[in-house]
Structure formats: structure tokens, C-alpha cells
Amino acid sequence: MAYVAIQGGQRAIEEAARLSEYLRTEQGIEGRPVSLDDIKYQLRGLHSRILSEGGLYHPDLAALAIKQSMGDPLEASFALRAYRSTRPRRMETAAHDTSRMRLVRRISAAFKDIPGGQMLGATPDYSLRLLRFDLMDESPEAFQEIAGTWMENLNADDVPDTFPKVLDLLREEGLLASSDNDGSEEAFDITRQPMIFPVPRSAALQSMARGETGSLLMIAYSNMRGYGDVHPTVGEVRVGYLPVELPHPVTGTPVEIGEVLMTECEVVAMYEGGDDAQAQPRFTVGYGACFGHNEVKAIAMAILDRALQKGMQDGAANPSEDPEFVLLHIDGIDSMGFCTHYKMPHYVTFQSDMDRLRTTQSKKERDL
Amino acid sequence: MRKVLDVKGLSKVYGKGCPYCRDATGPRFNTNICPHCASVVAVHDISFTLYEGEILGVMGESGSGKSTVVKCLYFDETVDGGTAHFFDNHGQYNLFDLFSLNAAQRRWLRYRRFGMVYQNPHLGLNFGISAGGNIAERLLMNGMLIYADIRKRASELLQRTEVPENRMDDLPGHFSGGMQQRVQIAKALATNPPLLFLDEVTTGLDVSVQASILDLIIEIQDQLKTTMIVVTHDLGVIRLLAGRTIVMKNGCIIEAGLTDQILEDPQHAYTQRLVASAL
Amino acid sequence: MKNDTPYTPSTAYPFGFLDAYAKREIRRSILKAVALPGYQVPYASREMPMGRGFGTGALQLTLSVVGPDDTLKVIDQGSDDSVNAVNLRRFIRKTCPGIQTTTLTEAATVLQSRHRIPEKPLTEEQICILQVPYPDPLVYVEPTEEKRRTMHGEADYARLWVKLYEDMREFDEITISHRYPTRINGHYVLDPSPIPRYDVPKLNRSRALILFGAGREKKIYAVPPFTKAEPLTFEDVPFRTETFVDADGNRLACRRCGATDSFLDEFTTDTGEKVFQCSDSAYCLSRSQGPASAIYTEARHDA
Fold first, then answer.
1. Do B140 and C165 touch (CB under 8 A)?
2. Of C154, C162, C237, which has the smallest distance from its Cβ to B129's Cβ?
3. Domains and CATH numbers, chain B
């Protein structure tokens, strides 16, 4: 008697993996393996997203994750995050000052002009989203030509490395509260401590910093559209390379060990009264930051930061202000994992459900 | 007569508060709002005693603080000063002392020794479960775990409050306002609490409905000898239900005594105005 | 910014994949969970190479508990050969070199399972680790975790009871099928994971330690051995397990081994015939072909 659906599970998994590998290499002799550099350079948007959602700044491995998952952002972030789990914690950095970022882009919507100027950098914001058919058959020569002549006649000295923070202007005028945070307070660590609500702001920011972009965007959008009243103005968006410093193991002096590409957004929101009747009202601030160049994510995060602060102070008036609602549903690894698990066998629980319904139906039938 | 409740110096302030709050607000100043710190002194220095089986009326207009008093006693709100002792054959409880009563004990008192009926049925009923389910919740909290007994007791309570038996399994949203109040009363009585708070329970209802609910309350008091505090701005309700009354204005008691005496011969100018303006 | 030095990542993982710090936290959480039967202990759950929802919580427990001398059995829906079980077993073998694996229930020292407790009663020598999607039974009536924590602390399960009452008045039956809320040691009510009602009685005064791991929800809890585990029900409404009876009311038997005392899988064959067989594949094979048949080597399948 054949054992239906009993054996063969192992084989099925192996065959599925082989089939996926086939799909990845389906081009055969007409194709060539995509290199990690191809991904890092020509798929920057996807690459930055994976760096940010994987929660591990490793450009090569982020590219590898993208390659092995054939560009699936949820799978790629998952692979990078799982790898992160295996890494031991050797040292911790002190808080870093993002005004030291070596900038590649920096804009503000709050003022027409700002000290240092509005530096657009490389952005698609003002481009026309017309399909570029000339790229369909791009030749290697045309490709190499662009980068080949780009650096000619460029004077790198003309461009300053960094610019002052726009929000500091508002602080000087007293429109924004000065920060009493000197960076000495210990931050929560979501990878080492369980989140038990209510959680501090640092836990919220960490969760969002590696949160899934679509999830963050969706909840922030709800706030923008009326399920909330942050009414944000982008004080500053800056993208650049932040030097990372570690204390020297012997002398303790900070030593630069490298830099990370990151995006930072500070949003100015509705003003609030002070703690007592005497204090002046001031603008409130929302902060967003993440690895890689991810502006939509950073802006959404800043809006949610402000919404959550409000929610933690006054009670949540809508989902975007509710810390449990936001923070427990934005992690892409958690959410996609659980969504995916519904494809797993659930026939025992279903058997149990059928038993309940059959019992209830038979009872009703007796009554009718 | 046995004492049930002894309240002394109950105070509640919304806002930061400052040293001048108490002396700068009240009926003399015609305001609850402190001019120095903008805090609202909802109630200040409320004291009264309640004896077994009696109905105490708490009368005042909006903003007088009358609802706040019962909310504090029912643990819906925290207090900023004062004491309240509740006497029961189970023991004596210092209600506002956080060191002698923890959250679980307060909850126990709230669900087994007190009953509360709100003006707004949404505060007293869970609109997501049936009328019977609302009563069952109280019984379940009280340790009644036999389904047949729960059904029987819920049915009895609804009968007593004149809710038709065939509506026991309906959701509260399907009932009229008057019926919702009856369900609330049934729920509040579920565990035979010795102390019942009624906060503006007939306000907003049709006059005939009001009358029938007031009749019900008198009947319950007569049969069960439940001690009650009835909060209202309506003189008619006070006259009908309360043996003794306290009159509140801007958070303070301005007059207290036998209801008949207060209504016949009010002493404070404000009480006189209230009595005179009653339709 | 070209990378001149070729990158050679280290592929060596510690025994049990997780680093020592993670294991220590998990073990401490287990001890706390055993000391507070039924209490959900929060822990900083690590991401694993399989998805959240695929058993990462139970996996972290298993990896923290097994040593090289242990014998492991992994099942899903009662079967050793189910895809999820196969995957997990492969991973644990790979990261815990030296451990034995088995399909024979009585030979295992550690059992990781999804949605079933084996038919053969477990012993004091064994630890059963269950995979949990929802650790908290109160999630039926309260979505906010902060409020649920207070409710558990005060053993305030009234709203859960009311849900049972509402089921009774509408259907004359409690409709919860799997994940049946169960009170442990007279205080905490837990969600026993999506095991069917059939398996809930196995928790009561079990001789084995039963651990529960929720990876995504980041909670660990336990039913210690010889502890009371009572499914919530009214005193006059008996707790009933799934019945497997035919139209005449006779108990159905497994078509392979003839057992009338096991949980049965029901399905329709290609010829349209409805058939029933034991969900617990090892139990079934043991009965129909003898215990030795229930062990099969996986050497050729190892990566």
C-alpha cells in the first residue's frame, strides 16, 4: 500500500533548491554571472535598501544576499540579518555626530537657501520618469565612456566636505528646543534586550532603522493623510559617509576605522506648549536615519518618530502614534516570515477546526 | 447604624498644581481653574459619611466635581489628597492608600464589593458582547464557573431590571437607551455589591423612561438594602431617591444634610438659586 | 572604491550555531520559565536562517539545550518526514556535530515538534520543545501586549472566560479547536501552541519537561514536569477532544496500523476515497512494522 504524502519531503526540498538554482542561471551560455560589483554600483537603490533592512553594514555581503535571492528584497534582507546573528559583538562605538558626515547630498525644504547651499547631489526627485529606451541595448563602450570623462575638469577642492545642520539655525533662534542629550545616556539594544512596552525612544528608532521600507512608508503615509497630525516640514535630508570611530584598545583615543554610507532626515513638526505655563512653545522634531541611501525610509521614519513621541506622551489617537502597533509590525524579517509560514502544512490544526465545526453543525441539526 | 463609607478631605487636581491652587479656587471665586498655574481643581476637601442601606445624593451642576467624587471612589481616577475608608463584613479597606491596597486588591473591590452605573452606557458595558455576556463577565470574575448557573443568574438579574428574557443574547447596541441602562444596572448588581454608585444614570433619557428606572432603583433599594451614592443635577431625582444630600459647587461641598431640609430650607445662596430654579 | 583584497568569510559556527551570549540568555530564560510555570518570559530572540513562523523560537531552545550526547527527534504535524521537520533536523545536525537523530520517540532525549505531541507517553529523561506562533491566549481578546501583561500578572482572565461564554450561547460549544487556553499550576493561562485538543491532556502532570519557544513573538515558557495543566472550561461543560468516528458512531482506525487510539489525518485519495491514518508517523510505523522500522538513516541526505 503506497504511503500517501508520507515520504519524500526531504527530496522535495532538495529538488526545489535545485530548480531555484536553475532559474538563477537559466540564461545559460547567453548569460554571465552578475558580479557583486554590478549589484553594488548599478543596483544602488536595492543595495542600499538591503544594507538598511538587513541591519548589517557589509556592502559585499549585502550584494551577495541580493545575488543569491535573485533580487527579492525581503529574502535578501533576511539572509543578511540571519548572518548578522552569527557575528560576535567585539566592541561598541560611542554615539557619533552626523554633522561630520562627508556629504554627497543635502537639502532643506524649510528654507529657500541654507548655509552651504541646497546641494541636490544625485537624485531622481526632479527627473522625468520617462522610460529610457536608449538603455535597452546599452553597449559596454557607451557605458564606459560616461564614467571615463566624468572626473575631467572637476575641482574637488571647490566642494566643502560638510555643512552645518539646518536645525541648529532654528535652535539659535529659540524656535526649537536645544537638545540636552550629550550622547552619554546608554541606548537600548533591541538585539540584546527584549522589548517590553513602554520602550524608550532609542528602542523605537533602532527598530525603525532596520525596518522594512514599505511598512514604514505605509504607516507614515496614513499619518500624512490625516490619521495623525504631524504636519511635517523637512528641516534637512542629508546623505553621505559618516566616519566610524572606535576607541583604541590601548590608549582609548577614537580612531577612524572606516565610513558608512547613511541617510539622515530631521523633520520639523507642529509646535507644542512647554512643560509649564511659563515656558515658550517650540517646534517639535522627528528624526530618521538608516544605512545606505534610502530617503523615503528616512523621511517616513522621522515622521513616525514624531508621531510615536506624541503617542507615548499623550496616548495614541491613531495607529501611527501607537508604539506597539508601529514597532511590532515594521520588521520585514518577522512579517515576511510569518506571512510565508502560512504555506506550511497546517492540516492537523485544520483537522481540529473541522471537528469543531462538524460538532457544532450536528448540534444545530438536532435542534432544527 | 453601620458605617459603610467614611470619606475625609478628598481632593483631585488636573494639571501640575501649585501651592496657591486650593486657596485661589472654589465657590467663593466661582471657578475651578487656578489663576497661577492653570490647573483644574476638580474636587477639594470633600468629606462625608455613608451608612448602610441609605441613599446619599450628590447634587451640583456641570463642573461641580460631583462625578469626579464617585470616579475616585470607584478607582476610575487617582486622588491627590484625602482618605476613604470602606467598611464591609469582609473587612475594612483604606481605599486611597497605595501601600495597603495594590492594583489587584483594588480591582477585587471594584468588581465584587462595588457597582457602578454610568450616564454613558459605553463606559459601563462592553458593546462587543451580549447583554448576558456583560453580566456573565462579573459573575465569572466572582468565581462562578458553572455555565448553567451563569445563565440562570444573568436571566434573573435581567428579569429584575425588566429586560425581556428573549433579549439576553442581544448586543447592547441593539437596545434603546433606557434598556441599556437597565442592563448596566443588572450588571452592577450581579455580585450583590454592598455599595452602588449611580452617576447621572437617567440624564438624557425620556421622562417616562427616567421614571421607570427611578422606580426600579427604589425597588432594588427596598429589596436588597444596597447602600447607594446617586450623582445628579436633577432636583427631582434627589427628592425621589436621596435621604441625605450634599450640594457641590466648583469642587467643594457648600451644603449638606437631610434632603427634605435642604430642599425646603436651603441655606447657601447657590442652593437657594438651584431650588428656586427647579421646574 | 574597488575591493582589492578578496573577502574570505569565516564559515566556522560555534556548536549550536548561536553564540555563547545568546545561549546563556536563553538558558536563563528557560530556568525562569520553569520557576514560573506558564509565565511568558521575554527574551531577545535571534534571527535564524529559516523564516519567522518556521520554528525559530523552538529552534533556539533546542540549540541551547542539546549537547553532543543527545538524540534528537524533529516532527511537524506528527511526521518526521514533513518538509519543515526535515529542514530543521538538517540544520541542527549541521550545527551540532556529534548528536544522533532518530524518528523513534522513545529513543530521543530532545524532541522538537510543531503542532503535535507524540502518542507515546514521554518520560523524565526527555524534553519536548514545541513551536509557538502565538504565545498569549489573551490575544483573542486584547491586542495590546502591555495590557495583557497586567492581566496575566493579576490572573485576570475574565475577558477570555466571557469569550467562552459567548461561544456557548451562540453555538452551544466552545469553538476553540487548537491553541486551547490552558491554566498551569492554578495561575497563568497559556497558549499550548497549535496542538489539537487531543494533545492538551498530555500536558497535565507530564513526566517530561515541556518547553515552548516563540521566535517572532520573542517569548519562552514552560510546563514543568508533574504540574497541573487544566484546559479552561465551565465546570458543567466537559472538555472534549477531537472524535474520529464514522457515520454509525464507531471509532475510526488507522488504515495502516489499525490504531484506534491516535490522532488521525484525514484526506481524500486520487480515487476519491476518504482515508484516515495516524498523524504520528513513527507511532504508526512502529505498530505496523515493528519499532526498528521507525528509525531510518539520513546519512545520504546530509549536505
1. yes
2. C162
3. 3-113+193-277 (3.40.50.300), 126-191 (no CATH)
- Please answer yes or no on whether C86 and A9 come within 8 Å at the CB atom: yes
- Extended beta strands in chain A, E state: 102-107, 233-247, 254-272, 282-291
ipTM of the modeled complex = 0.86
Closest-CA distance of chain C to residue A205, Å:
17
Could you read off the pLDDT of C184-212 as tens digits, one per residue?
A: 999 999 999 999 999 999 999 999 999 99
pLDDT digits (tens, 9 = 90+) for A194-212: 999 999 999 999 999 999 9
Nearest to A242 by CA among A226, A262, A216: A262
Residues of chain C positioned with their CB less than 8 A from the CB of B151: 169
Q: Which residues of C have a catalytic role annotated?
A: 38, 254, 257, 278, 284
For residue A281, the 8-state DSSP code is P
Q: Identify all chain A residues contacting B37, using CB atoms and an 8 Å cutoff.
A: 276-277
- The CA radius of gyration of chain B, in Å to the nearest whole number, is 19
Q: What domains can you pick out in chain C, each with its CATH number?
A: 20-231 (3.40.50.11310)
Distance from CA of C138 to the nearest CA of A (A): 16
Q: Report in angstroms the alpha-carbon separations of A168 from A65, A172, B23.
A: 39, 6, 44
Using 70 as the pLDDT threshold, list the residues of chain A that sit under it.
1-7, 183, 274-278
Regions in chain C scoring below 50 on pLDDT: 1-3, 6-7, 296-303
Calculate helix-pair angle for A295-314, A201-209, nearest 10 degrees: 150
**Distance from C-alpha of C45 to C-alpha of A220, rounded to nearest angstrom:** 27
Question: In chain A, what are the domain boundaries?
Answer: 11-86, 98-123+158-180+187-338
Q: Do B137 and C170 touch (CB under 8 A)?
A: no
Helix (H) or strand (E) holding B247: strand B244-249
> Using the beta-carbon criterion (under 8 Å), do A363 and C173 form an inter-chain contact?
yes
